[in-house]
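Lab notebook, bench 4. Still working through the backlog of constructs that have no structural model yet. Next entry is a single chain of 241 residues. Request: give me the structure tokens for it.
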Amino acid sequence: MNEILNKHRMDVLRKFSAKLGLNFTKLTLLHQALTHTSYANECKNATILHNERLEFLGDAILDVIVSEYLFRQFPTLPEGELTKARAVIVCEPTLARCSAELGVGEYLFLGKGEAGSGGRERTSILADAFEAIIGAIYLDNGFEAATHFVLQQLQADLLSVERGEYVKDYKTLLQEVIQKQTDSKIIYEIVEESGPDHHKLFKVAVIVNSNQLGSGLGKSKKEAEQHAAKQALIKLKIIND
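Model written out:
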């Protein structure tokens, strides 16, 4: 057994497991899901399993669960709209919020530097831990338990799809898509202005890693940026035209 998984930690994990509405048979999985790489890197004299592999698994399972739910719940919604809805639900801020509501931050094992710089409230760490927990639930309790957990935690966000309150902001969606794949920065650049001051037309290009992913026209810079982001999402095959 890992030297940091002592009796006290086991008791803490059992309480957290009950808080999640679960009964973990292998608390080592839940412990791993709550162990950040920064902690593992500081423990050079011990074999510490961090949560990146569970995060990888949980991310895939989360996509399947939400995709199946949307597919079955909205039989008339076209593929492009399903993709948009899923991207908004399965995004870093949403997952971090769910994680924070469960109090995940207080159960995390972080390196001293990460803990001292606010790691327990950091969006990326909380979102990653949430996905890792899903992976741990799947391995310990199976797909049905993971599905129940995900749908319960994301209930409010799934209801927003039923009300049609999703993906009205293409810039936000593009940012979520790009950040999930890379740390690259998105730049919106005005490439052309035309017309009189009272009736200007702006053309904006959206650029990632020096590559132009799309461009758009608008009567304001914000409108043009939204159109450019939409074109980029179409090019990336996130949404349909």
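Notes after review: Residues 170-235 form a domain with the Double Stranded RNA Binding Domain fold (CATH 3.30.160.20). The mean pLDDT is 88. Flag for follow-up if needed.
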